[in-house]
Design goal:
2 domains; 344 residues; 4 strands; mainly alpha; two-stranded antiparallel ribbon; 73% helix
């Protein structure tokens, strides 16, 4: 196995591509995907979160609802105030002051509606949610997606281990060797698993590091239920613990994907076919079904960890791990034996 790693890391092209893909991963981590609805003002929202900052309580609920009611009342009476000004009931200065309040209410109403929605959600929360500026961390968690640069690196490494022998015409030598038939294939699959773990952890921690440095993730020690995007989850962890859990979760599915890619490479032998087939296995099911158990959902983590769905009485986040653990073990065991014996 050590020799296989030496061969891999002595290949400059592979190292360069991995570094480039990591750079792309870092660049993509700097981008935000969430676009708030029209009328939402992030500065106004930040002001409200700073004034409400801390754990939710009934006083904050009353305060938000009262302010919202006052804004609604002010906007509802806009025509009435104009008429009173025309009838000279209100002075110029009084009307200017009221008009200024109405303009401010108009600029804030959409944002306060979101704060009201959040406050009503908090009032129903079983855990202890907290107010803080959560737009960036919400975007990060809700929009975790399949990491394409990471997949490209895994495909590249798998193709190096399982396709290179066909291009260098050394496959007949491997087939005739006892070690080649009995040990080499297994060692290479172990190398793929180790590379899958290492690259997944590095890529996902790098992504998290960029978010921490460049974005306002707010109070990551707050309970995960503080984020409305996690309203269906049964997890009782902090936001930081949840992010670390997603790294572990996505790494596990990265190992499964590495095993699947290995079997594909052993079967097809050719770089382009292996590349297209591997990506197809990950992305084509998304176009066909919205089933939460497809492999891409595990690579995203959010659809499974935020869901309250159950299978046979067990939560989907646990059942998905069990299902793919069994699938990966079967693929690594019987699949390795059969494919090695009759194809490789």
């Amino acid at each position: 196995m050590r020799y296989e790693f030496i061969k891999l890391f002595s290949n400059k092209k592979i190292i360069i591509i991995i570094v480039v893909m990591f750079g792309i991963n870092i660049f993509l981590a700097t981008r935000n995907s969430t676009v708030m609805y029209e009328g939402f003002n992030s500065k106004v929202y930040e002001f409200y979160m700073e004034s409400l900052q801390g754990e939710y309580n009934e006083d904050k609920y009353i305060r938000v609802m009262n302010e919202y009611a006052e804004m609604q009342d002010l906007l509802a009476k806009e025509g009435s105030y104009l008429q009173q000004y025309k009838d000279k009931i209100l002075s110029v200065n009084e009307y200017k002051e009221i008009s200024s309040d109405i303009s401010m209410a108009k600029s804030r109403i959409k944002t306060i509606e979101y704060v009201v929605e959040k406050t009503q959600y908090y009032s129903q929360c079983k855990n202890m949610p907290s107010y803080f500026y959560d737009i960036d961390v919400n975007d990060y968690i809700e929009n975790m997606s399949v990491n394409i640069p990471l997949l490209i690196c895994l495909i590249l490494i798998v193709s190096f281990f399982f396709c290179e022998d066909y291009y260098s015409n050394t496959i007949s030598m491997i087939r005739s060797s006892k070690n080649g038939k009995n040990i080499l294939c297994f060692n290479r699959m172990m190398c793929v698993c180790i590379c899958s773990i290492t690259l997944s952890v590095v890529f996902y921690i790098g992504e998290f590091g960029v978010k921490i440095l460049l974005m306002n993730l707010g109070d990551i020690n707050a309970n995960i239920s503080s984020l409305m995007c996690m309203k269906n989850t049964t997890l009782n962890v902090t936001i930081l613990e949840y992010i670390l859990l997603t790294i572990i979760y996505r790494t596990f599915f990265g190992i499964i994907v590495g095993i699947i890619f290995s079997v594909v490479a052993i079967c097809v032998h050719k770089y382009i076919v292996m590349f297209m087939t591997s990506l197809g296995i990950v992305f084509i099911p998304v176009l066909i079904t919205d089933n939460i158990l497809i492999i891409s959902k595990g690579l995203e983590a959010y659809p499974l960890l935020s869901s309250a769905k159950r299978i046979f009485g067990f939560q989907i986040m646990y059942m998905s791990v069990f299902i793919y653990l069994v699938f990966g073990s079967v693929l690594l065991g019987s699949g390795y034996y059969l494919i090695k014996r009759y194809i490789y």
